[in-house]
Amino acid sequence: MLKKRLDRKVVVTGVGVLTSIGNNKEDFARALFAGKSGVEKITGFDATPFSSRIGSEIRGFDTRLLTEKEKRKYSLFVQYSLYSADQAIKDSGLCLERCNPKRIGVLVGSGIGGIDTLEKEHKNLLSNGPGRVSPYLIPMIIIDMAAGVIAIHFGLKGHNEAVATACATSNHAIGDAFRIIQRGDADVMVSGGTEAALTPLGLAGFCSAKALSNRNDEPQRASRPFDRERDGFVMGNGAGILILEEEDHAKKRGVEIYAEIIGYGTSGDAYHITAPCADGEGAATCMENALLDAKIAPDQIDCINAHGTSTQLGDKAETLAIKRVFGRKAKKIPITANKSMFGHLLGATGAVEAIASILGMKEGIISPTINYEYPDPDCDLDYVPNKAREIKINTFLSNSFGFGGHNASLIFKRYE
Description:
Elements: E1 10-18, H1 25-34, E2 40-41, E3 54-55, H2 68-73, H3 76-92, E4 104-109, H4 115-128, H5 137-141, H6 145-154, E5 160-161, H7 169-182, E6 188-195, H8 200-208, E7 238-246, H9 247-253, E8 259-268, H10 281-294, E9 303-305, H11 312-326, E10 335-336, H12 339-342, H13 349-363, E11 365-366, E12 389-390, E13 395-402, E14 406-414
Parallel strand pairs: 4-5, 4-6, 9-10, 9-13
Antiparallel strand pairs: 1-7, 1-8, 2-3, 6-7, 8-14, 11-12, 13-14
């Protein structure tokens, strides 16, 4: 049996991404660095009655990976995760036939799960009675099914788990997968998040909570993190999957290594079910814990991928938190908010943003925060406004904060 260790290095060897601005890493990176918005008027259903009628939808989704039966059995969030996992595994060069399947695990989460199926089958119940409800209803809506289906599809028999911490979900998933490899319980983990919550019920819920932007006539200008005129976030669908691997395991395969994950920090606000701590305490504690875990000083962070949702309270609180952690250096750190381009992907957002910064580190580019037009005195840091910036990134921090006060921060560094 492998002796448990806490000092095993963990690297990223593959990525898979599905968003409104790109259905693979190449298209995603091009759009990201060009500052392209994927927000448009919702076309998946009639959004006319809603106060917010815009969203970040997946277009041109390739379902050839699935059989017709699987398409009927799997909710969209599961399909999205499987698609992205397939990309990531291929990108990593893993030959699963030559690997020990008991040493490869899956840790993939979702904030909301199969809400599309829940809506459909509830209508079916009301119209046709309980006997006509799909026998697949429960496995189609439960959040753990993304991890379960990925394991079944690829024959992965190691640690298998799901996380559901709202918008912090995939940062927690990646961080916990990092720990699993670090302590010796797996050599490879397929990890990240997936979401398909842009449905009539999902949209209605966030509209009623007054969380969404109502800039319906200017969809591509609606998501504007840290901008004075921000009026809420834009909902989006998508998925992001990373292949995390123990360093020696990856080196023996001679595969390209994107980055090393070196820090994972968490905290709880213990404050409010939807609003962040006004003074940023919870977020600050989370970032401090990530820095302690990475054993680096704040001045070693070259850039930050902010949670940056485009809400009044959230962006202000995150700005205060960054100032608490980084002090005088806070105004010198480039900060990007990727949600300005592809909206808020809820449980998938942390993984997609981590991939964005990993690709940026590889190319020497930090992606822009688009739609930053009107400076806000409460948000006065360097948000890399509107245009990508060439910068050598050695180490970056990525934040995700969720409803319920769940906070998770990850730190990645360039692999030498």
